[in-house]
Amino acid sequence: MANDWNDTRPLSPHIMNWKWHVTMATSIFHRASGIALYLGTFVIVGWLIAITMGESAYETYAGIIGSPIGLLVQIGFTAAVMYHLANGIRHLFWDAGKGYAPGFANVTAWLTIIFAAVATAVVWAYILTSVVEF
Known about the structure:
Number of helices: 5
Order of helices and strands: HHHHH
């Protein structure tokens, strides 16, 4: 026997009537950055394989990874590392039962995104302005 309350409540939130917010975005970014870290690992393994195959293979790989698209991949990998690090620390606090209040969760979500962007910019500003050549 159904009551009025059960008949009027929504069955489940749907993307069309669910309001997007920053904590939802950070959850999606966390999963995406995890996938990017797995893919970036293949780039690192490729670099290690190229090193073991000799100078010619290494120079070819370095040329690919030093191309504009290769640099974009490296910058994306750095952003994924920085974001996953910051959000992982945020999750450690959640595991301890801290930081669940909506206002605080929103602030830490924004701080996570800002940290990832600033840290990536700082790392790549240093790399691109240092003596190292690509």
